[in-house]
Amino acid sequence: MKLLLDECLTRFVKRDLTGHEVHTIEEAGFKGLENGDLLRAVTGIYDVLVTVDQNLPYQQNVAGLDIAILVLAAKRKAMPV
What we know:
Shape: globular
Largest sheet: 4 strands, parallel
Radius of gyration: 12 Å
Number of helices: 3
């Protein structure tokens, strides 16, 4: 499964997603795109966009896109390194 980590996630999350092909937005060449443009650009290339932006599914029309959005919720924003 091809996973794309949103810019709001640290690259260290990548190491915990073993068994998948994982790229950061920067590695994939999509840095700086706004949510709507980003979703349209990565649809069909990646299977899942991983984000912590809990508003993204409500702000964007994701129904017609061929990509899943995984919204992570955590008690802390800091990640152990």
